[in-house]
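In this section we walk through a basic example: taking a raw amino acid sequence and producing a predicted 3D structure, encoded as discrete structure tokens. The instruction is simple. Fold the sequence below.
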Amino acid sequence: MIAFHAHFDGRVIVPDHTVDLPLDQPFIVHIDTSGEGEPALREIPALQWLADNAVVDDLPADLSAQHDYYLYGTPRRS
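The resulting token sequence is shown next.
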């Protein structure tokens, strides 16, 4: 396992120092905070997140029953 300090610039993770890794090689990245800087994001329950991020929109009343019709244009279910 290779470990190094890095920071997130809002778009990509940038190593703080040169890292000797093979080019064009896929990696699995595990993120742990180092305890420095800002505190880690607090975890919230999924239902609370959904409630906090819900949007009011003019969606059709039969969207759940007719989702294939709206997504793929298939004939409506009876």
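Looking at the output, two observations stand out. Residues 1-35 form one domain. The first strand starts at residue 6 and ends at 8. In the next section we compare this with other chains.
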